[in-house]
Amino acid sequence: MVSWSVLMRIQATLQKEMVRxxxxxxxxxxxxxxxxxGSIAHMVLGGKKFGxxxxxxxxxxxxxxxxxxVAGNISGAHMNAAVTFTTCALGRMPWRKFPxxxxxxxxxxxxxxxxxxxxxxxxxxxxxxxLLTVTGPTATAGIFATYLPExxxxxxxxxxxxxxxxxxxxxxxxxxxxxxxxxxxxTEALVVGLLIVIIGASLxxxxxxxxxxxxxxxxxxxxxxxxxxxQVFSAGDNWWWVPVVAxxxxxxxxxxxxxxxxxxxxxxxxxxxxxxMVCEDHRITELPKNPxxxxxxxSMPLEQF
Length: 305
Prior knowledge:
Blueprint: H1 4-14, H2 17-46, H3 53-71, H4 81-89, H5 98-119, H6 121-128, H7 154-176, H8 188-203, H9 213-228, H10 231-238, H11 242-261, H12 273-280
Helix pairs in contact: 2-3, 2-5, 3-8, 4-5, 4-11, 5-9, 7-8, 7-11, 9-11
């Protein structure tokens, strides 16, 4: 029987900021990936009867929406290592949180792959004839990770992933920019989900629009250890590293473009004389929270993306 003191210590640990953010990223990424990978399993294993490319876009898009509801007010629900990287690189979050977020995302994505494999195991075996392959008419590795199609070559795939992730990050900054024209309060998760659907429906066919190292690498590693073998890394001229590196570069460039060409050009409201006097008077010890004076209201809240 677990003692009361042990339960109290567990509860105290779970209440720590870093632990809560790790668990938030884990759960939100898990939710997104279960819905997304499950939709691909339906499309691959069930043919047109159970799934389509549109259903995959919808599942990933609204999977992101639900993931944001799961963790948006705790960690911001990044669910994407490229978004976390850009958030840190642009000074919107301290770098010490980067490994915490990414570890949560990777573990959540890996466990989602384990879940989908367990749920669809018999369908996978039946469809593939008990032979787990990466390429060919009965390939099933594509349920879990992206692979370069025959009409693409590696460097074009790299540019494609970089571009669409840049578009993702630029639009995320626009959606959440309180000084511009952000999504209405309470609708951010829905708008971001629609953004994922739009990107997939318009730009997804060339590279599978991973846009996210946390979405692609952990499930790929799972397929490696689950029986698909080393070809999950060697297929497509060693394509595996592109969904890891290209999204990081693309998201950073997209964020920089928004900050320079849009964010910096938005007129800022001048600080009122009253607020300026309050911020300068360090003798005042208790005042209402004032968004114009971050030193009085604690650290300014991080934007979701």
